[in-house]
């Protein structure tokens, strides 16, 4: 195996409130980056590490995804997730999935065991059940409502959720994964960018991206794939590409951010929103984690 330097970045969603104590999220993100780095150093693949890291972010209950999910307007927990393996261009996704603990595990199963990319609604739940993925048996006991703090403070239309991870492994392969409960106060059936390959998640052999923010604007900008294509076809650096795409999202009225890595090990975490919970392994080996 070649000894490529590994890279990892993750996010816990755009939107953070000045003055609020995010130390639990920061501790959690620092720990997850360190363990992802160790797994990558030991030779784990990028796709396995992004799947496991997003599953850990989901189960922490600290973010608006997985265990921390917020319900939709009808009181149901409808979750979206997607992932992509840059080396194979294989992808898996679920939209409006109800009743399962880890939407990213369901997305991974879609990628691994079906010829399809995206399962939605009842079909997604039926599929997750067929794979014996852990179900949510008691919603009240399972969901932590990490959203309560933010939802009391921010307008209904503000973005608040989502976790994501991008990684470069020792073989030089890239992967990206994203999982969310979506925006607060979403109507039943509403699906955002986090379930859509090319919008909220993208990975190819040059760039891996996971987005967070007002999903409708990220879908309309094909934000994640656009970052990669600005690098591939536009000769942009990763940082330029990411800034230009967020600029386009902002021009259309959308707020949010993204994390991205490229095959050279560059990592960027720009946002145009009131903060973004984020963490990364830097080139000098240090780990940073911030919310604002
Ligand atoms: N992008 C997510 C969605 O629109 C929400 C978020 O990132 O906060 O569903």
Low-confidence stretches: 149-159
What portion of residues belong to β-strands?
Answer: 15-25%
Computed Rg: 17 Å
Order of helices and strands: EHHEEHEHHHEEEEHHHEEEEE
The counted number of beta strands is: 13
Helix content: 25-40%
Q: What distinguishing features does this structure have?
A:
9 helices, binds aspartic acid, 8-stranded mixed sheet, single chain, globular, 292 residues, alpha+beta, 5-stranded antiparallel sheet
Protein model, in words:
A hairpin with a 4-residue loop joins strand 9 (about 255-260) and strand 10. About 35% of the residues lie in helices and about 25% in strands. The chain has about 290 residues and is an alpha+beta fold. The longest helix has 19 residues, at about 25-40. The protein has an 8-stranded mixed β-sheet. Strands 7, 8, 9, 10 and 11 form a 5-stranded antiparallel β-sheet that branches. The structure holds aspartic acid. Aspartic acid binds near residues 159 and 200.
SSE topology sketch:
Elements: E1 7-14, H1 23-41, H2 46-60, E2 79-85, E3 90-97, H3 103-113, E4 118-120, H4 121-130, H5 139-142, H6 147-153, E5 163-168, E6 174-180, E7 201-203, E8 207-213, H7 215-220, H8 223-232, H9 238-251, E9 256-262, E10 267-268, E11 271-272, E12 276-281, E13 287-290
Parallel strand pairs: 3-4
Antiparallel strand pairs: 1-5, 1-12, 2-3, 2-6, 5-6, 7-8, 8-9, 9-10, 9-11, 12-13
Helix pairs in contact: 1-2, 2-3, 8-9
The structure holds aspartic acid.
